Amino acid sequence: MSVLQFGLLSAVVLVGALLQVSIGFGLGMLAAPVIALVDPGLIPVVLLLLATGVTAATVLIERAHLDLRGAGWALGGRVPGTIAGAALVAFLPARALALCVAGVVVLGVVASLRGFRPHPTPRAVALAGAASGLMGTATSIGGPPMALVWQRYAGPRLRGTMSAFFLVGSLLSLGALAIAGVVHAETLRYSAFLAPAAAAGVLLARPLSRWLDPDRTRWIAMALAVTGAATLTVRQFL
């Protein structure tokens, strides 16, 4: 990996972590396509490791607003989804995983644009948790299903509840991937190299939050994610 590529990854992780803390998701959708462009072998483990640290920090920040019952229903669905996602990573080639990353990003954005607003019943939350477990373990992008089912929540409650879910869910996914044998020394090394960028994003989120319009920020994040997904898809076919 060149210095320029590493600088690009660091910048994307910093912005993604800032979005994760500010609006409850964004690290996976923004950073996964770019990381897959640079080195598909780093997906999903590197982002899951970074997400664990970022979501742990967000849980501490928003701990007073957690919906533990809702997170519990979601985690109940996450377990079978995690197992299925780990199986996909173990058997799919890198190119297929890269295309899955792009597809998941586009599906998440399309669902948001269509304004689908399911009521967060226990069944709906558990189904969203299963979809998030499958997508998050296979591609490191598990945010869209949970953002859809919990979009009725206010900002602090959304960020806190999603972060609690993603913290436990990321640990489950990492455990399943380790059992599947896809956690390697290289992924751990690059996670450590990119950790300072993720930490910088977390630290910048609080002072910058007063200047960020949540709706505008969400639209910018989706536009950047789609751009990354489109670039990744084109590259796979060239």
From TrEMBL:
UniProtKB keywords: Cell membrane, Membrane, Transmembrane, Transmembrane helix, Transport
Membrane topology: Multi-pass membrane protein
Main location: membrane
Highest rank taxon of the organism: Bacteria
A family per Pfam: TauE
InterPro entries found in the cross-reference section: TM_pro_TauE-like, TSUP
Record-annotated membrane-spanning stretches: 41-61, 82-113, 125-150, 162-182, 188-205
UniProt subcellular location: Cell membrane
Keyword Nucleus applies: no
Family classification: Belongs to the 4-toluene sulfonate uptake permease (TSUP) (TC 2.A.102) family.
The protein, known as: Probable membrane transporter protein
Organism name: Amycolatopsis magusensis
